[in-house]
Amino acid sequence: MKLIVIYGPSAAGKHTVGRQLAKLTGYKFFYNHLTVDVVRAVFADDDLRRHDLLCDLRLRVIQEAVRYDLDMIFTVAYTFDKPSQIFMQDIINSVTVKGNSIHFVRLCPPEATLFERIGNESRRRLRKPIDREGLRGRLDDKERNLRGTIDYPSHINLDTSQLTPLQSARRIIKEFKL
Length: 178
Prior knowledge:
alpha/beta
């Protein structure tokens, strides 16, 4: 089993690149808003109690993919806070326990690109955040610690302002020999 974790800020292109990568590889595509939509049925977006449920659902799906040896792509708006670090370590432990591989892809376009994309129709259709002020707050608060790379083995950074989704997917395939 191989797990590709695509992460980055809102509007970086995680869903678009992940969908393209799934198309090229045949991997299952588990994007983070699938669980966001489920949890919204119980907790509002601003309800802090939702975090644990989101993490539990996501981890459980990944564990089932490991159990059935299903290659998968997972997207997440990962940040460098303690709960996110614990969640990522839980994913790593779940995947690597049986000798499977996990690869991290950080999408990191410039902030100007994020602000151009934040209100796109595709984001509206998927009920993703489209608020420019909210994006500014998230970038200032949570993303500042991710300006460099995260120290995980098997990791690359991609500037999606310079690469199309197809080019990004091809780079991932080449880098990780998928």
